[in-house]
Amino acid sequence: VGLDGAHLIADIEGAEVSRRLRTARQLADRFRLVGTPALVVGRTLVVGAITPERLDELIAIEADMPPVCDP
Questions:
Q1: Cα 45 to Cα 41: distance, rounded to the nearest angstrom
Q2: 3-state secondary structure of 9
Q3: SS3 for 46?
Q4: Which DSSP string corresponds to 53-67?
Q5: 10-43 per-position pLDDT tens digit
Q6: CA distance 44 to 58
Q7: pLDDT of residue 32
Q8: Is 37 helix (H, G, I), strand (E, B) or coil?
Q9: How far is it, in rounded angstroms, from Cα 63 to Cα 20?
């Protein structure tokens, strides 16, 4: 596959990965997610598997809604 094992381990143990994992954990705690898969689409939290068709529906619904806040 061409992976550099030592580089991979260094990246996994690095500050950037730790920061991203900490952020993901904080978001999961905030949304009270207790497992995977989970996905937030706009204002909708989906817990469990979702079909591609349902995902498309949620994206379309969100696209038609006014923004929650100004960008």
A1: 6
A2: helix
A3: strand
A4: HHHHHHHHHHHHSPP
A5: 999 999 999 999 999 998 898 888 887 888 898 8
A6: 8
A7: 87
A8: coil
A9: 27
Residue 2 corresponds to which tokens in the numbers above?
Answer: 């061409």
Query: How far is CA 40 from each of CA 23, 28, 36, rounded to the nearest angstrom?
Result: 15, 11, 12
Using 50, 70 and 90 to split pLDDT, how confident is the model at 70?
A: low
- Which residue's structure tokens are 């997610």? 33
CB 45 within 8 A of CB 38: yes
Return the structure tokens found at 8: 């991979």
pLDDT tens column, 42-57: 889 898 999 999 999 9
Nearest-angstrom CA–CA distance, 39 and 61: 15
CA distances to 2, 23, 48, 51, 65 from 28, in Å: 33, 9, 14, 22, 24
